[in-house]
Amino acid sequence: MDSNLPMDAQIQKLSEKIKTAQLPIDLAEKVNDMLLLLQTSLKSGAGTFTDYENISNYINLITSLPFNTETSDSLDLNNVKMTLDKNHYGLNTVKNEILEYLSSLILNLNKNKDNSMVKAPILCLVGLVGTGKTTLASSVAEALGRKYERIPFGGMGDSLTLRGQSRAYPDAEPGEIIKKLLHAKSKNPVILLDELDRVDDKARADIMGVLVELLDSEQNKGFTDHYVDYPFDLSHVLFIATANNTTNISTAVLDRLEIIQMPSYTDEEKKIIAKDYLFPKILKDSGLNPGQVVIDENLWPNIIRPLGYDSGTRSLERTIEGICRRVARMAVEGKIQQNGVVAINAQNIREFISV
Q: Which of 7, 170, 339, 345 lies at a C-alpha separation of 20 to 30 Å from 200?
């Protein structure tokens, strides 16, 4: 609210916002009626600042929703393959399944004038922690040229987290689906539904019920968030799901998922991932220069398994991060020259990791 403007002028600004937002006709009529009622009640003294604030917040939100805005798809399968290979070592079986899945989508998107997704199961990447599920989803978004959003389901304890709360309640707000669309500013992002199997036990049935609606192409065309209180077409969204296992996912949701099993990495694969993918990225993120940290070739087995076997790369990533942060601190404290090279070998390895 702009306190320097009279109330009539502020309401007029909201009215202009509605006109320029290209809302669906019936929604525009609904909010215009709300605004007219507010103006009347304020003039009569029955309305309050809280009434104005609630309606103002609602109008600002719905006029920001991407009812008619979407990004252009890059429907080049070779580009998808190049992106997957650039970001992920190995996983050839998984990559081929993703490419085959996207091939069908690409063919149908080329046929569909409205760019809505076809009726097909939702990809669900299933595997242990650190096997690359989340990063594969972001790579798909990158390859297609779509915005990428993530909704964590770990510990989610209320279906209203997804569907939002009615404006009749104090401090009501939209659910995660609407929030992600607002952030993406696009009606066709890739939305990752991360760790579906880790929702709170007490809320599992309700959350699974909302998921059935989200993932069903016949139902998600009119998904209604309680706060927005108006159907939004989610058929343009590409949902991708992940889970550690499928035990806690309801049968109704599983029927709408295409399961892709993520394999564990061998030590040799982890070594290549560490040297060619993780290490260069973590060096850069730590503020260090390429080549500033040199690790003796014989030490990689200790770095790969500092605490024993791990099916994924999460522990490996943390170990490399610890090494790079230690070197970054040495540089800041003046213990090495700003661009000095630190060689990590059998004699000094204990200074950087516990082995």
A: 170
Q: What does the block give as tokens for 250?
A: 């309801």
Cα angle, residue 197 at apex, residues 196 and 199 outer, rounded to 5°? 80
Residue 273's nearest CA partner among 309, 314, 328, 322 is: 314
**Is the domain defined by 267-351 classed in CATH 3.90.480.20?**
no
* Torsion on CA atoms 215, 218, 221, 223, rounded to nearest 10: -60
List average pLDDT for each run of 10 residues in the chain, which is 355 residues long. Answer: 64 88 92 86 71 88 94 91 91 92 84 64 89 91 95 95 92 95 96 96 95 90 95 94 95 94 87 91 92 92 71 83 92 81 91 77
Helices (H), the chain: 7-20, 25-44, 49-62, 77-87, 92-111, 133-144, 160-163, 176-184, 204-215, 251-254, 267-273, 279-285, 300-304, 314-332
- At the topology level of CATH, where does 77-261 sit? Rossmann fold (3.40.50)
Q: Are 240 and 140 in contact (CB under 8 A)?
A: yes
Q: Are 153 and 36 in contact (CB under 8 A)?
A: no
What kind and span of H or E run contains 23? none
Cβ neighbors of 91 (< 8 A, separation 6 or more) are: 132, 136, 262, 263
The model's pTM: 0.83
Contact (Cβ atoms closer than 8 angstroms) between residue 344 and residue 352: yes
